[in-house]
Amino acid sequence: MSQLVPKATILDAAEMGRIVRRMAGEIVETHRGVEELMLIGIRTRGVPMAEALAAAIEKVEGRRPPIGILDITLYRDDLSLVAPKPVVRESRFPEPIEGRALVLCDDVLYTGRTVRAALDALADFGRPRVVRLAVLIDRGWRELPIHADYVGRKVPTSATEVIKVAFEETDGTSKVQILDRPAGA
User: pTM for the complete prediction?
Assistant: First the structure.
């Protein structure tokens, strides 16, 4: 794999916080509160995204929506390319998803294949009333007809660029960077 080099930091921790607060407000407004709402974080960085949204929603509504964790490893269409022995972790939901309003949370929306895998995985756990998608970054380049309902920021990228999202909980810092492959790599 070619070496990736940082090209630009496009969001710092403060900017990420403002974006998450705005997205949380949009989610609450769309769902008219948190009664039937459950946030579902797609492993790995969708989980801290869901946690950040839940914390922001709690500050506004006084109630924290429940958070589920979804592992999509076995539902990926590129499983054979990921690793010879992929690690499958548990999916957990604090309550049944049947009839609930779910918001799938992820850090970056790119081709749409992760979201497709997440929808397939959710179907094995029940039939929610509605499923919406919240992403911190939408970088374009869709291969499937999937869009996000709540977008932190749209960031046009080239085919050689990669968006790297870091959260304090998983990476020790919060920021979003664009990485690039150097010429000739």
Answer: 0.93
